[in-house]
């Protein structure tokens, strides 16, 4: 339910921001987005954001990596061409497994790490030539910005935000 | 202040008594005459179990009529060997159990020193719990050394074969050139002296750190905290050297023909896992009784993370040691693992499930690490796994394929569990369970992850 107008409340301190978030939530307004120059601990909790599931994906990707390593080494070293290389027992996978563990480990980590990072990029919509979605360049330096969609309640929302200690409250057209 | 509940006290004393009876039974049951052993071996061979191919082979040879005398003397030798293994079993069982609990106390002491040296902000609430556990170190380590000494003076060098003076006597038929070459390090007086030096160093650190910790409670500046910091740093240096040498002396020398360079760290990693696990278990117990009101689930979460991390560290060292030796397959090194894989297959690989797979899968989830019963469950598995680890390090050298986890092993564990509980919980009653003036105590009380 996107509206055409949003309010941007700008803060200069993360503690003030946290208090403002709690107050805005208490007044039952929906916070569209918050832009901060650095991670503010506890902000996600105060906003009521759902916890990330990135760690779960990483675990599953790790499992994929382990399977890839196992199937690959089993096919190459045991099934396809079971050569005697320096007396290593290539009769079955388990017999020669200690030699494969470094590969199994590294591929597990490799898949887990890289696929999780790529998942993160996809989910956060980040790529090299992406246009920055920054409503105010100061939020990358020392300002914090809370964006709240409005629907005919500009006045009371404006007053509430000023009350929470916002240094600037602007009504702007929604750009996205 | 914690009071040692009478139920727990009675339970620990009962464990000690029951354990002592079982240990006594184990010793009485292990005296077998050579004839008894021969009858037993003959029964095993005819029973068709084929557990003893050695004797079976000797008997078939004897049946052919050739080299009759040779085979007979060979069978005699074999019976004598088995007789020794049977006699070694109660000694080894009690030694494994004693070492296991000593190792927990020592691991906790090292972890405790690290908390001071690193000026950790999360753990000061748990320092008194750790001090309680380390109270076991002095008696526990002395008992380990005492068992080692008694196995020489009363037993027949049942744990450490190099203690047999015949082995370094060139005129004896037991003469062993490799052991003789190591007698500069491996000789009984030096072994005992070194053991006493290690124990004295550890016990001194434990004594003074405890003293400063209590003095800090009533001080009006941070003088004692600074002293604790300094001795913790000094102790950690002393510890890493003595721990390494202790593991050569007390564990690796049961196989005097075998050596491994990362053995000391391997033993250390097991120590830290078992130590952190016991800290977690006792903390959860005391918290459940309402005695550690400021300890929150973030502290449990941190302890569980350490259990998880050190379990993986242990596995890393176990695998590094195993894989390097398996890969190069040099006969003088690989026998160590050959006997373990052949005779101890289930405990040897089973402990990987207990010590690696289980803690890894259970403690990977961040939410699970906050649930006390989950941590307790994982902790119990980890402790069983590390008992099996010590068992795997000692038993193959002393009892060989005559191992079993039966009366001597279980009752030794019961005895030392009782002793450990008794000493640790008695020590916990001696001081308030929370430090008062630790500069980081406020941070620890508000610790949140």
TrEMBL record, chain A:
<keyword id="KW-1133">Transmembrane helix</keyword>
<feature type="transmembrane region" description="Helical">
    <location>
        <begin position="54"/>
        <end position="77"/>
    </location>
</feature>
<protein>
    <submittedName>
        <fullName>Quinol:cytochrome c oxidoreductase membrane protein</fullName>
    </submittedName>
</protein>
<feature type="transmembrane region" description="Helical">
    <location>
        <begin position="97"/>
        <end position="122"/>
    </location>
</feature>
<dbReference type="InterPro" id="IPR021776">
    <property type="entry name" value="ActD"/>
</dbReference>
<keyword id="KW-0472">Membrane</keyword>
<keyword id="KW-0812">Transmembrane</keyword>
<dbReference type="Pfam" id="PF11821">
    <property type="entry name" value="ActD"/>
</dbReference>
Automatic annotation (TrEMBL), chain B:
<feature type="transmembrane region" description="Helical">
    <location>
        <begin position="346"/>
        <end position="364"/>
    </location>
</feature>
<feature type="compositionally biased region" description="Basic and acidic residues">
    <location>
        <begin position="63"/>
        <end position="74"/>
    </location>
</feature>
<feature type="region of interest" description="Disordered">
    <location>
        <begin position="45"/>
        <end position="74"/>
    </location>
</feature>
<feature type="transmembrane region" description="Helical">
    <location>
        <begin position="371"/>
        <end position="390"/>
    </location>
</feature>
<keyword id="KW-0472">Membrane</keyword>
<feature type="transmembrane region" description="Helical">
    <location>
        <begin position="410"/>
        <end position="428"/>
    </location>
</feature>
<feature type="transmembrane region" description="Helical">
    <location>
        <begin position="184"/>
        <end position="205"/>
    </location>
</feature>
<keyword id="KW-1133">Transmembrane helix</keyword>
<feature type="transmembrane region" description="Helical">
    <location>
        <begin position="135"/>
        <end position="154"/>
    </location>
</feature>
<feature type="transmembrane region" description="Helical">
    <location>
        <begin position="231"/>
        <end position="251"/>
    </location>
</feature>
<protein>
    <submittedName>
        <fullName>Quinol:cytochrome c oxidoreductase quinone-binding subunit 2</fullName>
    </submittedName>
</protein>
<feature type="transmembrane region" description="Helical">
    <location>
        <begin position="12"/>
        <end position="30"/>
    </location>
</feature>
<feature type="transmembrane region" description="Helical">
    <location>
        <begin position="306"/>
        <end position="326"/>
    </location>
</feature>
<keyword id="KW-0812">Transmembrane</keyword>
<feature type="transmembrane region" description="Helical">
    <location>
        <begin position="263"/>
        <end position="286"/>
    </location>
</feature>
<feature type="transmembrane region" description="Helical">
    <location>
        <begin position="93"/>
        <end position="114"/>
    </location>
</feature>
